[in-house]
Amino acid sequence: MQAFIRYLSVTLVLVTMVACGDRKNKEADRILDSADALMTEHPDSALSLIEKIDTVGLDEEHFARYALLLTKAQDKNYIDPADDRLILKAVDFYQGCRFLSRQKQQRGNTGSVLLRICNLLQRFFKTINSNNIKML
User: Fold this and answer.
1) Start-to-end Cα distance in the chain
2) What are the DSSP calls for 60-105, one per residue?
């Protein structure tokens, strides 16, 4: 009986953690969608929204999108980043095509086209890196 109670407790804790993590990602999605819509006309408002996101517990995909939009909002507000760590996390995620390979599974032909584009971009980045070309 005691083992059952322990099993049930662990299961409830895990279910709660998964539910809270998913809710956090959905909330981040909602905020990032709003910020993205505001980015062109009101970059200061977009930046304010993005900065309110608590990044603890975001999955890799949502954190990459957060990093990308935060960097874009800072740029549009003429704020220089202290270093490149944040944008490099987004670059690593999108350059690695993990996101697009998941999209391929969900979207069929559209995902295949996106994955081919991503592979072309990977080859482009490899060429740049092999020729020691500095990007801005």
Assistant:
1) 63
2) HHHHHHHHHHHHHHHHHTT---S-SHHHHHHHHHHHTTHHHHHHHH
Contacts of 45 (CB under 8 A, 6+ apart): 35, 38
For 4-20, give the DSSP string. Answer: HHHHHHHHHHHHHHHHH
Which pTM was predicted? Answer: 0.60
Contact criterion met (CB below 8 Å) for 92 and 58 = no
Round to whole Å and give the CA distance between 131 and 56: 37
Selected residue with higher pLDDT from 93 and 32 = 32
Write out pLDDT tens, residues 99-108. 555 554 444 4
